[in-house]
Here is the input.
Amino acid sequence: MIPAIANSLWLGACVPEYRRFRRAAARVAQEQTTLLKSIVSANAATTFGRAHGFHSIRSPQDFQQQVPLRRFDDYQDWITRIAAGEDNVLTKERVRFFEPTSGSTGASKLVPYTATLQQEFRRGIQPWVADLFLHQPDLMNGAAYWSVSPVATRQRFTSGGIPIGFDSDAAYLGGWQQRLVDSVMAAPAALSHILDMDMVRYLTLLCLVSCRSLKLISVWNPTFLSLLMEYLPRWGDELAHDLKRGTISRGTSNIPLQLGPNPRRAQDLRAALQRNTAADRHAQLWPGLRLISCWRDANAAAPSAILQTLFPQATIQGKGLLSTEALVSFPMVGYNDAALAVRSHFFEFLPIDTSGETGSPLLPEEMSPDRPYEVVITTGGGLYRYRTGDLIEVTGHFHACPLIRFLGRHDHVSDWFGEKLNEVHVSRILSKVFADHEISPAFAMLACDTRSAPGYVLYIDTEAPDRILNLVAREVEDAFCGNFHYSYARRLGQLGPVRLFRAQHAAASYLENAIACNQRAGDIKPVALDRRDIWWKVFQGEFVAEEAAQPV
Here is the structure.
């Protein structure tokens, strides 16, 4: 009864914002203008606000004229001052903590979090939760697993004494709502303070297998969950032993986990481990699991499809677009794509043409379907007209609110020899070629190998035969040669043709490398293109033998 009571209270807290969003969805322009005026007026007396004439801004057009578009590096000086303890720099509110970004390829950057920014996140999370519970009330009758992954380092503080980082997904909520979520968590957020990744995996599995009433799983990267499940048969005997006795056979007494003896659940686990397939095993362990929330768009499409085969009893729901800096969209039951979070932040969108150039920024009501846009945000956390680099397209509307789909990163370009390969372009080519040959790789990523014979390598984890993979390589190469810059680099002999490397356990290797670079395991995004020349040292496997020379 505890989950039902806690979730009912949470639903009650979420319904008012759910109703406000539905009203706002019919009047997007007015809602966005009101939100912008609130952010600008609240921060007019800050260092940033005075420098940009916030006091004279009366409309979105004024704002666009007086505040230039910026990327994260353009904010670094202001953020450094905040981190050192200076107040009233970007926001009138004090910065409660900094959250490191969790991008898959770059160094971490610190994003300032204020009370207003946390409230803006809640304005997107609450309608999602209310929509889920109202359409699937059975979800309220059991426990949930919300992503818990190691923070990679011990608790840190800036030179001005501001904390860095928070524990889990539930920390986006804050306050008593976070405590409600914590009360129905299958695995406690305190696991994030354990630095040993194997120990975190073990304890997470121990919590999950002890919980027959599991109803909902919320993770970011679908591969994070599928890889976690690979450890279940490997550690099955040890997990069953600990379940039966209510002890933890590995680690120290400092582990923040209390278990009572559960011999019946230990017996259930041993029985499930005898099933022939992973899907049958998971269905027997968690028969009530109804929904898995994870990334599903762009390069997460294939890993999320694999996750569906592992948990046939559950529905896979895409997360929408959420980053460290902003909550851009959230999913709704009955819609394939996510609703723009029009009550969370002020949004602008830069149209992208076929050459990758950007046009003049548009407001949400000015966008048209079926063309890419870069997302620009203004938040209560102090990022004004901030270019996120995220590309979306409009696929429809909920009333007047755009429904959007994440496409990839606009600013993610690999350019070792002037070839200028863009991730979105690469992702679309790979998706088409894979679909044409009816293969669904567990992992696929392109990266340049710049050693003695430079060229791009497609690292792929699939059981498809070499004959098919040779066709894939040729068709990817042909498609790349449609890019003038890539074709020119090939004609000059600066790049060789695309080669395929059949990588073993590639997803696990990719995650382990990212964790070693101090990225949070649950937050690492699947990418189609990586700009670094390191992967020949990381992946284990072999190149697929080429059947014939590939034409330029």
